[in-house]
Description:
Blueprint: H1 16-21, H2 25-55, E1 60-63, E2 71-75, E3 81-91, E4 97-110, E5 116-118, E6 125-126, E7 140-142, E8 147-156, E9 180-182, E10 194-195, E11 198-208, E12 211-222, H3 230-236, E13 237-240
Antiparallel strand pairs: 1-3, 2-3, 3-8, 4-5, 4-6, 4-7, 4-11, 8-9, 9-10, 11-12, 12-13
Amino acid sequence: xxxxxxxxxxxxxxxxxxxxxxxxxxxxxxxxxxxxxxxxxxxxxxxxxxxxxxxxxxxxxxxxxxxxxxxxxxxxxxxxxxxxxxxxxxxxxxxxxxxxxxxxxxxxxxxxxxxxxxxxxxxxxxxxxxxxxxxxxxxxxxxxxxxxxxxxxxxxxxxxxxxxxxxxxxxxxxxxxxxxxxxxxxxxxxxxxxxxxxxxxxxxxxxxxxxxxxxxxxxxxxxxxxxxxxxxxxxxxxxxx
Length: 241
């Protein structure tokens, strides 16, 4: 130790054990409690969020079967018979799934060799929520345990209605066939808005703000033949997972 005009204290290494030895058991306990409190304050919120989204997060599940209420025949206000084909999105989690939207992500068609060829440069489109005619309704909040239907496509009775495709890639002959029209507000002239008779694979994904994406791949086979009887119609168009 040196004491000059300006008081200076220089602690040598030999003094450190002496200072430490001055701490009592209660001092050590208080220091430990302080460190634990600091760790809890820092790690606690992180663990809480991890628990919330691991064990209590929304879990959207995609359901489908070729039958009512997923796929059914109905008559519009204009008296047109139409078959609608839908999937259902059910939240099996503990929290509400926020801002849910369903996208048709890709279309693949079977060629003459039996291989499915994916449409090139296909822009994913948002599929319509069933019975939601307001174009502004693009996303929905699905409460825990609730289920909403999503329209995939529809086929109108060609005897009473002949919808016109806006896709530029179809020939005039192809446009005369009975089509499976995709149910979306996002119509892009440069890609298919409907499917001609054939075999297809459709990849559909449900996204949410606070839940992991849910994906389903559907295999669709369409003969192009309309049938008034539902059982007969579901022999002409077969959709399965």
